[in-house]
Design brief:
alpha/beta, about 35% helix, Rossmann fold, 8-stranded mixed beta sheet, 8 strands, about 220 residues
């Protein structure tokens, strides 16, 4: 894993990057929780997602949003952070010109940014949105959601209650052939205290199944 500095739209962006083993390795971008609530790329859930994609042979990056850690700039309530995410994805694509797949994953506030980025970048093949705070941010902009993915939360989450996620998803549509999978971790709170391994295992299961399906489809097209 390399520590890198990316020249971003609001100044430097502090990031961590692991290069995949192949020239065509898939890429994954990981987005951290709310900066005003102490969220950084060193968050345990964020690191777990990073390690998951790394273990599957992805080129993977996580970074600090503007104003966090050594990243320059100031918090901009989502608009600037979405700009950071798009810029870092561009940077990743410049490092791996022909990635086999492109995934984005985010936790809490990062999950909200992840879903917004998904709507703007047609090259994204899949996503993991962990505990999106649907009580604070409406998800109806997923209209239609252009890629399949997993929305996961803890059933004891008091910060981003599952009922709000379910309510918000009733307004969401998906493109033909795409599916949003909704799941929860029993007994888990917003921070997955004591449940981090279970959260990671569920994400790993979904990612593995999705990659196997994508490979079958890819080989079937040859």
């Amino acid at each position: 894993m390399a520590e890198i500095i990316i020249p971003g739209p609001a100044g430097r962006i502090e990031a961590r990057y692991t290069e995949g083993p192949e020239e065509s390795s898939p890429i994954a971008l990981i987005l951290h929780p709310h900066p005003r609530a102490g969220g950084t790329m060193q968050d345990p859930v964020t690191i777990s997602l990073y390690n998951l994609f790394e273990s599957r042979g992805f080129s993977v990056m996580r970074f600090n949003f503007r104003g966090v850690g050594r990243s320059q700039g100031q918090f901009e309530s989502g608009s600037g952070e979405l700009s950071d995410a798009a810029y870092v994805l561009d940077y990743m694509e410049s490092l791996t010109e022909t990635p086999r797949y492109c995934w984005v994953a985010g936790y809490s506030f990062g999950a909200w940014i992840c879903l917004q980025l998904l709507m703007r970048r047609p090259e994204i093949d899949g996503f993991l949105a962990i505990s999106p705070p649907a009580n604070h941010y409406d998800l109806s902009f997923l209209a239609p959601c252009p890629a399949s993915g997993l929305i996961l939360s803890g059933d004891q989450d008091k910060v981003a209650p599952p009922a709000d996620i379910e309510r918000s998803l009733t307004k969401v549509r998906v493109q033909k052939g795409e599916v949003i999978t909704r799941d929860s971790i029993p007994g888990a709170n917003h921070f997955y205290q004591g449940k981090l391994d279970e959260m990671t295992e569920r994400c790993a299961q979904y990612l593995d199944e999705s990659l196997q399906k994508a490979e079958r489809e890819r080989l079937g097209d040859i």
